[in-house]
Amino acid sequence: MSSPQQAIAAFFCLLGIPALVGCGAGAAGVGASKASTKASAVPAVAAVASPAVPGARGGVREVADPQEANSFPVPASVHHKAAKTPAKAGEALVAAGAPSDAEVRRELNQMRAVERTAQKAQAQELIPVAGGESVGGNGTITPPPGIPAVVAKVIAGGNAIADFPYVFGGGHGSFVDNAYDCSGSVSYALAAGGLLSAPETSGELAQWGAPGPGQWITIYANAGHTFMDVAGMWFDTAGRSGPYASRWLVATPPLEGYAVRHPQGL
Q1: Which of 44, 165, 234, 250 has the highest local Cβ count within 10 Å?
Q2: Can you tell me whether residue 226 is helix, strand or coil?
Q3: Where do the domains of the chain lie?
């Protein structure tokens, strides 16, 4: 232990009280991202289980991500800005007051123009960056029209951390971090839609929600890796084109060996 705070945290973990101290991968929030880079140095092909790390709530241990080498893990010397809270990332602006008929007609015309522009932008974004399957442009995607608000918020959450670096354990001690692993990334995006209140490990996401594919969101997870399909777009840390490339991918990842789950009602 390098500090009294960490010693106290370890003591509570031994007592089986992880909820009080955030035991598990990345338990120290932003600082844990730097510490966890030691784990990211382990070759992904080894698929060696990490030390007995309990999950945030369900007790499912996080193991080494077999896709880690394909996620461009960064060294501790890399410092990225911290993310906003998922709630901030998923906020939707609501206009105050009842508009007049003329305002409604004007807004409808503006909305149609915006939708046409968004469709063109989406087509451009879906061209992958050389070296991987990440979307081009600024790495974010435009929510397609007609989707439920909660799904749009999940997309907004994914956009908020789309270009953050990968660090094993990132985003587990806190949603607010400066790097995210696969389950930390999926947890953040789901939390932006109000679907999670605490980060989940990959193993926990393999048991989360309802079984089978969803209409709008489908999560693929096993003990070591997780990713999801959101309104037809793939959100994954593996398959990107570089350390700061987008988590939104244009190609379908291999789907064998994963539990298939979805949020209730979605």
Answers
A1: 165
A2: strand
A3: 4-91+123-262
Place of tokens 């947890």: 187
Give backbone dihedrals phi and psi of 221, rounded to 5 degrees, phi first.
-150, 145
Which two structure tokens, joined as six digits, stand for 168? 């094993």
Q: Hey, is 192 helix, strand or coil? A: helix
Three-state SS for 248?
Answer: strand
Written as six digits, the tokens of 109 are 């015309």
Of 69, 60, 86, 258, the closest CA to residue 171 belongs to 86
Average pLDDT, integer, range 81-98: 65
Per the document, the length of the chain is 266
* pLDDT digits 0-9 by tens, 179-234: 999 999 999 999 999 999 999 999 999 999 999 999 999 999 999 999 999 999 99
Residue with tokens 């009842």: 98
pTM: 0.61
Alpha helices (H) along 41-100: 86-89
One DSSP character per residue, 63-77 reads: B--TTGGGG-B--TT
Question: Hey, what are 37's tokens?
Answer: 């880079």
- φ/ψ region of 239 (left if φ > 0, alpha if ψ in -120 to 50, else beta) reads left
CA distance linking residue 91 with residue 79, whole number of Å: 26
- Per the listing, tokens 């915006």 go with 114
Question: What number of helices (H) and strands (E) belong to the chain?
Answer: 9, 6
CA separation for the pair 190, 183 (Å, rounded): 10
Q: Are 86 and 175 in contact (CB under 8 A)?
A: yes
Q: Side chain identity at 18, as an amino acid letter?
A: P
The pair of structure tokens assigned to 246 is 């987008």
Could you report the per-residue pLDDT of 100-141, keeping only the tens digit for each?
A: 667 667 777 777 776 665 555 555 556 777 778 889 888 999
Number of Cβ within a 10 Å radius of residue 138: 11
Q: How many CB atoms lie within 10 A of CB 97?
A: 6
